[in-house]
Amino acid sequence: MKRTGIILFCAVWLTFASATLAQTPNNETQSQAAATRQLLVEINALRRELLQQAIEFQQWKLNQINRELQQVQTEQQRLAEEEQWLQQEINELTAASDGKSELETLKNELAGERTQKLRNRQQPLHERATELTGQANKEEQRLRQLTDKLKTTSTRPVS
Questions:
Q1: Could you confirm whether domain 2-155 is CATH 2.30.42?
Q2: Which class for 110: exposed (0-12), middle (13-18), buried (19 or more C-beta within 10 A)?
Q3: Are 139 and 59 spatial neighbours (Cβ–Cβ below 8 Å)?
Q4: What's the mean per-residue pLDDT of the chain?
Q5: Above 60 in pLDDT, residue 64?
Q6: Fewest CB within 10 angstroms: 48, 70, 106, 147, which?
Q7: CA of residue 22 relative to chain centroid, distance
Q8: Residue that wins the pLDDT comparison between 17 and 95
Q9: CA–CA separation, 159 vs 156, rounded Å?
Q10: How far apart are CA 155 and CA 12, in angstroms?
Q11: Which helix (H) or strand (E) element contains residue 157?
């Protein structure tokens, strides 16, 4: 009987121990799943933060490009006004020259040399304005892509 009691006690104890051991991996699995979910939440938060910083940087770049483009356009406007003034001077000299050689020489100088200098200064500005406009369009497209990506990341549920 003593033997039977000991065997019965061992059997109950083994049953209890095995049940406890069976629950431990289940708890471990649950805690690992919870930790994994928490890591996914943190990773998604970091992704959103990086996207937000990328958007802010794109906006800064776009502002810089637009500021430089505005400066180029202002210079283009100034040179166009200068060319208009020069053309007006040429027209006035043409009307007043009536064959006078001194005025004719001055008119030719204004028409030739100075006009060419103005046009030589305008050409690089025009090229730079075109380049900046293209760059601004590219940066605006990149900004839209980042904004769309942020929206999809924010609305996507955590797995």
A1: no
A2: middle
A3: no
A4: 82
A5: yes
A6: 70
A7: 53
A8: 95
A9: 9
A10: 53
A11: none
